[in-house]
Amino acid sequence: MRYEHSARGDVVRKRATGPDATGEQERERVWAYAWSGDGRLMEARTPEGCAITFAYDAFGRRIEKRVARLGEVESVTRYAWRGDALVHERRERPDGAGARVVEERSYVMLPESALPLAQRDGAAGALRYFVHGVNGLPEALVEGDGSVAAELGAGLYGEVTAEQARHTPLRFPGQYADEETGLHYNGHRYYDPETGAYLSPEPIGLEGGLKAYAYADAWLPETIDLDGLKKDPVVCTIRRKDGTTVTGTSQDRSSSDLHKAVLAALPPTPARDPDDPTAPWNCAEPAALSAHIEDWEERNKPKKCEPGAKGWKKNLRSAMREIDEENGISSKHEKSDVARAACPNCSQTVPRLFALAGMMPPTRVLAPGYQNRRGVGSLERFSQPNDGFHKNSSNKSPNAPVSGTDNLGTWSLTSKGWRRYS
């Protein structure tokens, strides 16, 4: 696969070679793309000679897709929206005998959500209901009586077979698959499920992250991108007993950006599942805790909470005592407002930070939240670490050397309170 880019960074040509169905090397296949000045895909040309053009409304929502071959229009699809939710599409095409065929499909969305609840083909068609995976991608359509009408076995990047694709064009939340181009329309950008990347760079620049073409900052499969701008980050709020707050956001950062006390409290090895690459220091909770401690130091100059500083443990204890013991550490998604439970890494970092200060963590200091971004399931205050985490004795040690402290423990939270494995 080879790409050619415009000066702005948009993919203007994609070239692919590979074996055909018989194993023979096929000729190079070329797709061409034309873009507007503000990064909207206006036309795509396929190796088969199709020209697909797009139109958008004043809000940037796609309202028309027109497919032509050799100058003859093969189909026109128009889209209707309610806010940012697609609710209806109407496709017109000739039947070859001079008549016009009209195909319609309506979508029912969950309230205040980007997730579809059901779809209906035609005005008199029966509703078929979506069954979603943990990342919101449709896995099945079921009839009103509960029988399975269709299944979609999507790959990691959301790709499905042509046979499965005909059942619904909806993919990751906010995405609509175009069979003609193989791309997924994703609000502000177009996503290529073949590579798991966008064809154009992040429209909001560096604010969206350093991975300009990555889908959801490459945090698949847990994280999604509703509109092609940036992943829906988690924001952690530390609420103090005096009512003041500080916040931190999940994002790519260096571990050195954290306060040294928080850095020492991170789990030495990841508590998340082994196939989850998220670094502990990128989460929102360590950022918020660092902001709280740094703010305490600013208000109490010249006292420091950094391990090794004069009176550091007493100072850290004073800072940690400021946090409200009842849901004082809470997290939620910035865009969707879904409350999130502390992840397995942060579920260790928080009690270990209290232990570093010589304190027992308050039982209810972590606010309850969901363990997925969709807000599905039960509310939890704690996320269990992977199976081998407690067995690894090195995980009891500080993540960075702390004089006089060699065991912060590993932790679990039960209905009776915190339990420390020492």
TrEMBL record:
Question: Which residues lie in Polar residues bias regions?
Answer: 381-410
Q: Under what name is this protein listed?
A: RHS repeat-associated core domain-containing protein
Comp. bias regions, Basic and acidic residues: 1-13
Task: Give the originating organism.
Answer: Sorangium cellulosum (Polyangium cellulosum)
NCBIfam families xrefs: Rhs_assc_core, YD_repeat_2x
Annotated region Disordered: where? 1-24, 377-410
